[in-house]
């Protein structure tokens, strides 16, 4: 469940910018 979007999304406890 790792998707990158325009906004930061928290996946698996990790913050993706």
From TrEMBL:
Origin: domain of life: Eukaryota
Protein name (Swiss-Prot/TrEMBL): Uncharacterized protein
UniProt source species: Arundo donax (Giant reed)
